[in-house]
Amino acid sequence: MIRSRPDGSKYPITPKKGGGAVVAAAILAGGLAAGGGLGGAGSAGTTGAALDAAAGQALRAKTSSARAEARQGRAKRAWSRLGWRRLERWGEQAANCAMHSYGEVQQFFLRTPCRSLKRRLLVIGDGHGNTIVVAIAWVRMANRDHAQRLKDLADTDGTGNVTPRRAAALGVAGVEFTGLHYHSERRGATTVIAEAEPVTGHPDGAVLDAATEIAVAFPPPRRR
To answer: Per residue in 190-208, pLDDT tens?
Structure first.
């Protein structure tokens, strides 16, 4: 099913946080179950699963290291932990969150105004033809309770969200944020939300998910 945002952009209704991991786990479990009764095929499947598990573990370790760098505001080091680097950046600050949101999240802001909203777009690349655009929003609420309520609402599929700045702001055409690669985090009275989408090449879905986990660890941009 496809829905439209207030700005006219389209997005599919898809699971936000963890949706891809659940599907992958189900496929993997089914494959192992089927392979167990196929002799050599089962062994090959087990070997492949072991390799996938090792790759996943390595990515988790890199993501954890990158998040530690991100928390210190060291963007170059953070992205380099994944073998990526930032190519472009755009940012803005706003006071009215209701104007930059949609769905139930917008209604929440009308009842519970935010204190500030900072949004940033990043394009990162691995130097091998794969590029990703990442949208980050830092929403400062009046208190921790309001921030947690916002996070819980935004994490629920079909409830709307803070509207990510369109990728065209960085000259990236034809890319819309779907919520498929999504992560959020609450720090005190601030809720941080990140989404990622592929731009060029064929970046792995797990890397897109990792990019959002790293993105939410960054501190909000300072005022200029």
So the answer is: 999 999 999 999 999 999 9
pTM of the complete model: 0.77
Q: How far apart are CA 130 and CA 46, in angstroms?
A: 29
CA distances from 121 to 40, 163, 182, 221 (A): 48, 12, 14, 12
Tell me the helix, strand and coil percentages in the chain, rounded to 5: 40, 25, 30
Instruction: Return d(Cα 88, Cα 133) in angstroms, integer.
Output: 9
pLDDT in tens, 117-152: 999 999 999 999 999 999 999 999 999 999 999 999
Token representation of residue 169: 């702001």
- Helix ranges (H only) for 72-163 are 75-80, 103-111, 144-155
Is residue 1, in this structure, part of any structural domain at all?
Answer: no
Residue 122 counted as domain residue: yes
Is there a contact between 162 and 97 (Cβ–Cβ < 8 Å)? Answer: yes
Structural domain harbouring 143: 14-215
